[in-house]
Amino acid sequence: MADGSTVQEIAQLKRGVRDVSFSADGSVIGITEDFSGHAFYYRVGEATPFQSLKPTGYSTPKLPMHRLLKDGKRVLGFGHMARSLSIWSLETGELLQPIKARSMYAAALTADDTRVAASTWSRLDYESISIHDLESGKQVDELAGYEKPVYDLCFSSDARQLAAAPKGGTIVVWNLSERCRGVAR
Questions:
Q1: Rounded distance between C-alpha atoms, residue 176 and residue 185, angstroms
Q2: 177: domain range?
């Protein structure tokens, strides 16, 4: 039972925090600095990050938001107006795989880390949700018809449903059990 005591405080980010996530085993915490997209990764209980990802250049998206994948070795980076999803090595800090997507607002992983849904948005184009196979990076489905940006996404634990929260307040739940056929689940 939790006793409510503080385990660790990390106060080194001068620009504030945009996103935070834990590894599946709870041993690593990832923090993304607001505005810069600079991500820092700490082992729980240690004061110094063991890895930092600081994407640079227009062709490399910032990582305003990220998720540590269950293998504990990779990071999925994504975020508002990023030009792609990206998978990074937590050990080396190298970009392993960019996944093509239009400008994005949000992303969600399936519980088994096999698929990722990304909400795309463009003032010149329609809004949609693209679903990608994480291993190949290929788009396997698209859920279209939004008139406003989708700010948040969440897969059900069995990946058969996807909840989308577009601007305007109406939550849309998609049934994916008949979609994405031929994609390993």
A1: 11
A2: 103-185
Same domain, 78 and 143: no
Spatial neighbors of 18 by CB under 8 A, at least 6 apart, are 32, 33, 34, 35, 37, 64, 65, 79
Each residue's pLDDT expressed in tens, for the chain with a length of 185 residues: 567 777 677 766 666 777 788 888 989 988 887 666 778 888 988 888 898 887 544 344 445 577 888 888 988 877 555 556 788 898 998 888 887 766 667 788 899 999 988 887 666 556 788 898 988 888 898 888 777 778 888 999 999 999 998 888 788 899 998 765 444 33
Residues 55 and 78 in one domain: yes
Both tokens assigned to 14: 């001068």
36 assigned to some structural domain = yes
| 88-124 exposure pattern, b = at least 16 Cβ within 10 A, e = fewer | bebeeeeeebbbebbbbbbbbbbeebebbbbbbbeee
Please say which residue of 49, 78, 100 terminates a domain.
100
